[in-house]
Amino acid sequence: MTYKHRNIVDTIPSYKQGKPAPKLDGIRAYKISSNENPYEPLESVKEAISTRALNVINRYPNMRGTQVVEELAKRFGVTPDEVVLGCGSTEVITQLVDFVAGPGDEVVYPWRSFEAYPIIVTGAGAKSVQVPNRADGSHDVDGIINAINERTRLVILNNPNNPTSASLSETDARRVLDAVPSDVLVLIDEAYVQFNTAKGTADGMKLYREYPNVVVAQTFSKAYGLAGLRIGYGIAPAEVVEGMRKVAVPFGVSQIAQVAALASLEDLAVKEMNERVAALVSERERIILALRNQGWNIEDAYANFFWMPFGADTERVTERFVAVGLSVRAFAGEGIRISIGEREANDRVLTVCEDLKKDGFSLNN
What SUPFAM superfamilies does the annotation carry (predicted)? Predict the structure, then answer.
């Protein structure tokens, strides 16, 4: 770049959105690359948007999302001063990093994990300390603990981890929390918490009530199916929320998103959401079992996606999926993340994997 700018920006990897469904003649294509909810928005949510939001889009939204904040506070048993909204949980995490870290500071997190982490940390001028995952895709807790030093300003735990779909146990989470100084925050990123069926998994809100330095981030994008509206939230000590709001994008959460979130929190909508989550979890378990029956040594999955570490074969394998109308999320040289989608899409995934197994492909785990 020829214009004067922050040189650190040149080191930031561009965020890569999941590719759209490939266009192929005569084949219905599916996008299973972005961990989106395959179900259409709930009718009650669409009606709320139509009747309560569209006629006010000429006005700025409530900047703090007061109604949503108050409803979330009631549901989680905290005060409204402990809840902050963001343009998706990604912006909540950005607020937190911008609040606590800058040049000379370090943020410790597992890797591979959510690919926005290095972008957010570098954007704040801080340094990422990436701790490689264990072979099964789970957090290397000993490595995370050993990476903490006097420059650490934040530790991030991703449960379940994106893209490996591994769960973090309560025991491991407590080990990290017991090792981190009480004046250093620990973020528990729970974007996929509703899909996490692992026994003994860490419960962010339970730990929040026990440790003074825990922040929990969740989202309406995945289980609630509001990815296109961009609304997430954080639960944090009131003084942390106050600091996060200072660095938040003003009016970042639209009124449409706020109305949709409120409608999604109504009892009937929550019941429907839970039914959809249960169906996706059941479908996930069906796929994992079928893959194992094909001979794949695949790890348990606890989100609405699963991980296949093909290593050096990742790009070749990705082409096989694209050829039959499936867009998956490839991480070059590492593996493929496949979202749980429509039944037909999932069956097609199994067909591709069966052919790959016959052709001698294997997983690097």
Answer: PLP-dependent transferases
Range of the domain at 232: 43-265
Residues 259 and 282 in one domain: no
Q: Domains in the chain: how many in total?
A: 2
Provide the pLDDT confidence category of residue 57 given band limits of 50, 70 and 90: very high
Nearest of 323, 327, 324 to residue 336 by alpha carbon? 327
Backbone angles phi, psi at 69, to 5 degrees: -60, -45
Q: How many CA atoms lie within 13 A of 185 on its CB side?
A: 25
Indicate whether 212 and 195 sit together in one domain. yes
H or E segment at 335? Answer: strand 335-339
Name residues whose C-beta falls within 8 Å of residue 323's C-beta, 6 or more positions apart in sequence.
none
Reduced to 3 states, what is the DSSP secondary structure of residue 187? strand
Residues 86 and 116 sit within 8 Å (Cβ to Cβ): no
Report the distance separating Cα 268 and Cα 277, nearest Å: 14
Torsion of CA 97, 99, 100, 104, to 10 degrees: 80
Torsion, Cα 138 195 214 92, to 10 degrees, reads 110
CA 140/CA 110 separation, integer angstroms:
7
Q: Which of 261, 264, 259 is nearest to 56 (CA)?
A: 259
Tokens of 207: 């730990």
**φ, ψ of residue 224 in degrees (nearest 5):** -80, -15
pTM, two decimal places? 0.96
Which is higher by pLDDT, 22 or 275?
Answer: 275
Tell me if 292 is assigned to some domain.
yes
The residues near 196 (Cβ < 8 Å, ≥ 6 apart) are 159, 160, 167, 190, 302, 303
Asked if 338 and 308 touch (Cβ cutoff 8 Å), the reply is yes
What is the pLDDT, as a whole number, of residue 20? 86
What does the radius of gyration of the chain's CA atoms come to, in whole angstroms? 21
Sheet holding 232-235, edge to edge: 83-86, 232-235, 214-219, 185-189, 152-158, 106-111, 127-132
Give the burial string for 306-317 (b: 16+ CB within 10 Å, else e): bbbbbeebbeeb
